[in-house]
Amino acid sequence: MSGAQYLNGILDQMSLEDCNTPEGLLKAYKSGYAAVFMANEARRQLSRNHIELEEFVLGGNLRLDTYGQAHRIVFIGGQPDEILPITGRVSGKFFKVVHPRGYPQVMTWQAYWHIVDHGRVSHLNHIRLPRPETVCPHCHRGFELDDLGTIVQDSSIWYYPPKWEKKFFTEMEKELKSQTDAEYYIYRNPTAGFFVGDDPRMTIGKNQFFHGKCHIEHLCSNRQRQFEELLIAAGFCIKETKIVGPGLETLVTYGPWYRIVTDLGVITLGLEEGIYIFIGLSELPVDVRQSFVLSEYRMDTHGIYVYGTDQAAAQLKKIFEILNQPSIPQSAATG
Prior knowledge:
Blueprint: H1 3-13, H2 16-19, H3 22-31, H4 33-48, E1 56-58, E2 62-64, E3 70-76, E4 89-90, E5 93-96, E6 106-108, H5 109-115, E7 121-127, E8 152-159, H6 169-177, E9 183-187, E10 203-210, H7 212-234, E11 238-245, H8 248-254, E12 257-262, E13 265-272, E14 276-280, E15 298-299, E16 303-307, H9 308-323, H10 330-334
């Protein structure tokens, strides 16, 4: 079933009053997450059909806009430990993604904006709501109404998955559609052949959805393993690993930074802007930055920024070799 067929199927089951009035949305909200999902999908299709939509807020933290899009409302203030296991700050203020209880289950955006404390609203995050059968890949649980304000979407694109190479396209499609730990979207030239790989433009999109806490735990475990494997492959022996930052806004997107104690000194590793890996060198026993060409890397007083894991692996190997060089005797150095 295509995405358009899926949306039209939902629209056939719901009227405009079901998803574009306070009464209809309140009925959906009281019916549970699946009904809210269907109402939101119906709104998306109505927007594509050029139907004007009203704006609403569900549960005090999910905005449904005039274009059929959903947005998580993010707030500044309160204690982030209520939802996130790691404390962080953005611009010196605590960051929180869940609004305090007490607001009506369904409100118009105008009514909500009239009573909310504007100074505490940080920004809006556009999100896709996962289908009711989709589960969080970290805890393998589904999603409920209480999760509306904390759902995190993690998207990726595949090219030519080797697992299905030269298999029937319909076989791959059936297997992907049966998965519940992610939602898959297949982009394929209609004139392509029957086998995977016949169309060089075919790609597979993968959307995973996490609960807020699960996403942080997922990022932490995956990023720590990735960084430790990079150091071990370079030759270092790891003694201790601790989280040292960064700000929470970066943390919830790219994962934490780590201060890693090795047999040759302390190295900090972290992901910056999603593509650069920061290698902190300021705590090493010798200054190794002079060994890097400034024009090739972004560098500051604390370390260097390299592009991707391949460059990080190469530079960590270089750092390991520098630190393992035998010390030059003082007489030889001064003579």
